[in-house]
Amino acid sequence: MNPSKAPGKDGLSAMFYQKFRDTIGTSVTAACLEILNGGRSVEDINSTVITLIPKTQNPVSMTDYRPISLCNVVYKIIAKVITNRLKGVMGKVISENQCAFIPGRLIFDNTIVGFECLHRLKINWRKKGSMAIKIDIAKAYDRVEWNFIEKMMLRMGFSTKWVKLVMNCVSKVSYSFMLNGEICGNIKPSRGLRQGDP
Question: From which residue to which does any coiled coil extend (predicted)?
Fold first, then answer.
């Protein structure tokens, strides 16, 4: 974990955990294992601060900012453990058409498939029943419905214990906001995913 990343709501950076590993390592490991084994709720550490980073020199509208989620390091460890466990089965449960986020697949492959589809349409333009639809959903991760993720994972054959663990990470979250250097507010969302969620 990059030690220079911004800390979460608790103010403790990865550098802190790395520097004091000999002192707190056993306790952090025990806390992570307790959460991963279902003995403790992830909700205790799943508090995220959202802050805005300007994309341009002189931002004038909200689109000129990039929101980033600042998660606690212990939560990041748990999310990483779950993500690493998922990597072993991703290639089996994700369609070959999905190229992003799967080891050994390139997102560029989707561009080639798109060009192939357009080429096929161009060749067969006189035939009825052919068309292309391009959909780009803005802020797609913010719109993901949690019950869809849960039902999809169960349908794919993941155990209920595993699905519960993932869903706890995704749904037992609260958001606060960094405004003018102060953390304020507390929102419990009802859908959406953060970057880094399992």
Answer: none
